[in-house]
Amino acid sequence: MEQPKIVKCGLGTIREPQKGLLDNKVPLYQFNVGSEEIVRIDFIFDAGEINSELPMVAPITNMMLKEGTVSMKAEEMNEKLDFHGIMYTLFCSYDKAGLSIFCLNKYLENALELASDMLIRPSFGEKELTTLLGKQKNDYLISRDIVAVLAKESFFSNIFGNGHPYGRTVELKDFDKITTEQLRTFHANCYIPDNLYIVVAGKIPKNTEQLINKYFGNQQRRDLVPLEFNFIPKKPEKRRHTEKANAVQTAIRIGSTTINKCHPDYPGLKVVNTILGGYFGSRLMKNIREDKGFSYGIASSLYSTQQSGIKVIFTEVNQANTNEAIDEILKEVSILGREPVKNDELETVKNYMLGNLVRSLDGPFALIDNFRSLYEFGLKNDFNYLLEEKIKNIAADEIMELVNRYYKIDDLTVVTAGKE
Amino acid sequence: MIEFERFTTSNGLRVLIHEDMSTPLVALNLLYDVGSKDENPEVTGLAHLFEHLMFSGTNRIPDFDKPVQIAGGESNAFTNTDITNYYIILPKENIETAFWLESDRMEEINLSDRNIDIQKQVVTEEFKQRYQNQPYGDALMILRKLAFEKHPYRWATIGADISHVQKAEKKVIKDFYYSHYAPNNAILCLSGNITAKKARNFVEKWFCGIEARQIKERNLPAEPIQTEKREIFVNKEVPTSALYKAWHGVGRCHDDFNKLDMITDLLAGGTSGYLQNKLVREQKLFSAANIYVTAEIEPGLIIFSGKMLPGVDPVKADKAVGDVISGIASGNINDYDIEKVKNRYESATILGHTNILNKAMDLCLYELIGDPRSINREVERYRSINRSEIISATSHYLNDNNCSTLFYLKN
After folding, report:
1. Which of A199, A203, B232, B380 has its CA 20 to 30 A from that of A376?
2. Are A249 and A195 members of one domain?
């Protein structure tokens, strides 16, 4: 039987959130979509790594939010969250930190009350910190045996330098330097209404804005002057290796700093990244996995942070094939800068990316993720439309041009972790 | 509430259709009733190797992934001890492409030497990445082998030994396909923006021409009842010692399954489980502790795992785990906690219903193990379990004579 006809899909109209302001001017965005009686609420603060001069203060502050409040011990608080079936995730990235919760509509007020206690009134108890740090040290020790973790750390410290919040590495002794005082100060300066925005999505009950205002709208703004830290940039080493005896696979990271999504070339670069290693049929997957069988998987990514963009190719390969794999990866990059992409492949990538874009905007919870990924860069839905346009219209010569501008082989650093 | 239509085609394919017009997408999920339990103990890992080979193309469609990508979709698969599950998610306009692809590889695949060799290598690297090159990566393999003596659940899905996959002969691989991949051994679900009528027509057009095949009869050896506790000590180069325990439980369809699931949720669900409160926060023995049911179709396991803090005596840690569990068995639980795990189950179920692929996978699985309509009765079933049932199930299943313990010690 004949292959079914394939229709090119497009974004259509993307849903815009309804915008509101709490009494203390905290922005609130709502996506009222969905058929189940459940909502997701994200609270996002400028409280990431970039907001602290000291390593680990930002993530440990975030983790301590679940360890008790001024009025409730950790056990009691978590008991209440679980009792109401509230699922939550604390997160801390390079630039942002906060809390994301899922709750049934019938428990919305319970969830908001508990969330405000966690975020606004944590206790930072000494005993709780000691227990948490004990656990973190254990996790840290275990992570020293994972080549993927070692290579990732080494890569970021190489491209940003150990002094930069994106690049700083942690040693075991650093855990003992963390004090409750540091956490309290960081919390008081960063978990404030000035630094907060809230996004809600799902089948949102009518009184939601009112309730959120009740629990988050009366905390005073601080009108602080944002702290600016000066970080000394560092020139990356071309090659870096972390030795791990007995490793049967080597973790490889190849890449460099690059533009982030605020740059006009970014949508085009995203197409380049996809061709290279952004989907199952990518050049790197075809070569390293499907042709050579060196690896279970290989991919390349573009990350955007406030201060920089990062492009990185990552994989774990059979130890004996490490050097061959690196050569093949670099070869794929140079081919992409030398030979125009054939029409057939480009069409596949375009369609794949359009489908991906549609999926990334499907459903209430995906809408939150997409919104956050833009809002933090001062971008709006226009970005999605621009990306769609670029995917549809980019041609082979522009791709080569972008590769030659952004993927210069001499700028790429090669980081490995495993057995030499 | 998940509404669906259900029918069986003349060649034995079971079909479920769930309409959800709130999304522009459709998920096509195809479950094959074959897992690692169906393997010959001498040639394990085949079911999973097959999952890889199913993406290697056919004579008619040499590249499986490309049409999915051109149609703007995504596709993947997983294998476990019981089933092999494939899915494709596509924009609704292009969903027929998924029928074309899945029916094609159900009918025939291209088992060329080259495809087989490459996928054997890829699976070997997967084995290294997941089981060898990770601290504690082999722990659950050791534990399964200790807990099961006869039943094929004793080996992990990737295989008892990776050399089995590397040495597997072409003829054996071929036979495996023809004796397990067939319409009469599969369950298909469409979930998303597609009408039942349209879905029916596509099923008719693409799947009804495939001939039913003779499916290898399933004759699984019964696991002898364990009568005394088992222990094993291994010493490895790991940063900290760990403890693993496994008790024999029941299959998913058994009346006690939900009770066991609730017990593990009382112990380790959310952030207020007894293990977290007693062993991590209070006694500071573990940096993290977890317990779960394996949710297998045949009687599976209840598995505990915990990483000990430095300096903790493993025997003492093991005893502390036992104490928390016997606390439940001797009635040391209140109705509030039971209500709590029921509420958590309800939330998690509703959250699961917000995703078309989740719904499709669940419908296929419930069809396989009995009645897909029971998917809408699960919350109610959990609600009906009472305190004394929890207590008696705990002492019946989670006792020492039914337990295998692995002390995974730091060198």
Report:
1. A203
2. no
Which of A36, A355, A359 has the CB atom closest to B354's CB atom?
A: A36
Instruction: Indicate whether A173 and A290 sit together in one domain.
Output: no
Report if residue A302 sits inside a domain. Answer: yes
Residue A92: strand pairing partners:
A97
CB contact under 8 A, A249 and B133: yes
To the nearest whole Å, the CA of B347 is away from the closest chain A CA by 5
The answer to whether residues A243 and A208 belong to one domain is no
Residue A6 contacts B, CB cutoff 8 Å: yes
> How many residue pairs from chains A and B have C-beta atoms closer than 8 A?
201
- Please report which helix (H) or strand (E) contains residue B293, including its range: strand B286-293
Calpha distance B79→B33 (Å, rounded):
10
Say if the Cβ atoms of B309 and A86 lie within 8 Å: no
How many structural domains comprise chain A? 2
Nearest CB among A34, A246, A290 relative to B354 is that of A34
Q: Are residues A317 and A212 in the same domain?
A: no
Q: B102: part of which helix (H) or strand (E)?
A: helix B95-107
Query: Is B90 an interface residue toward A (CB < 8 Å)?
Result: yes
For range A260-270, the mean pLDDT:
97
Contact predicate A263/A383, CB 8 Å: no
- A1 occurs within a structural domain: no
pLDDT in tens, A357-397: 999 999 899 999 999 999 999 999 999 999 999 999 999 99
The boundaries of the domain holding residue A321 are: 239-418
Q: What is the pLDDT, as a whole number, of residue A34?
A: 86
- Examine the pLDDT at A281 and tell me if it is beyond 90: yes
Residue in B2, B3, B21, B69 to test binding to A, most A beta-carbons within 10 Å: B69
The reply to whether A88 and A183 lie within a common domain is yes
Kindly give the parts of chain B with pLDDT less than 70: none
B189 and B32 in contact (C-beta within 8 Å)?
Answer: no
Between residues 145 and 184 of chain B, which touch chain A (CB distance below 8 Å)? none
| The pLDDT value given to residue B355 | 93
Domains of chain B: 5-207 (3.30.830.10), 230-410 (3.30.830.10)
**pLDDT (tens digit, 9 = 90+) per residue, A199-209?**
999 999 999 99
User: Is there a domain that residue A165 lies in?
Assistant: yes
Among A216, A247, A264, residue at a domain's last position: A216
Q: Three-state DSSP class for B304?
A: strand
Q: Does B344 touch chain A (CB under 8 A)?
A: yes
Contacts of B114 (CB under 8 A, 6+ apart): none
Q: Which of B122, B287, B353 sits opposite A138 (nearest CB)?
A: B287
The reply to whether A95 and A188 lie within a common domain is: yes
Residues in chain B with CB shorter than 8 Å from the CB of A291 are 118
Q: What is the pLDDT of residues B43-66, one digit of tens each?
A: 999 999 999 999 999 999 999 999
Q: Is the dihedral of CA B372, B374, B377, B379 positive or negative?
A: negative
Q: Looking at the complex, does the CB of residue A4 fall below 8 Å from at least one CB of chain B?
A: yes
CATH code (residue A188): 3.30.830.10
Residue of B nearest to A142 (CA): B239
Evaluate if residue A226 carries a pLDDT over 80.
no
Contact assignment for A66 to B351 by CB distance below 8 Å: no
- Test A145 with B239 for CB contact under 8 angstroms: yes
pLDDT band at A8 (very low <50, low <70, confident <90, very high): confident
- Determine, yes or no, domain membership for A83: yes
B307 touches chain A (CB under 8 A): yes
Tokens of B386: 């009472």
List C-alpha distances in Å: A230 to A307, B127, B241: 12, 45, 42
B374 touches chain A (CB under 8 A): no
* Prediction ipTM score: 0.92
Q: B189 with B364: CB under 8 angstroms?
A: yes
Q: Which residue from B minimizes the CA distance to A83?
A: B340
Residues A308, A397, single domain; the answer is: yes
A98: left (phi over 0), alpha (psi -120 to 50) or beta: left
Same domain for A197 and A251, yes or no, is no
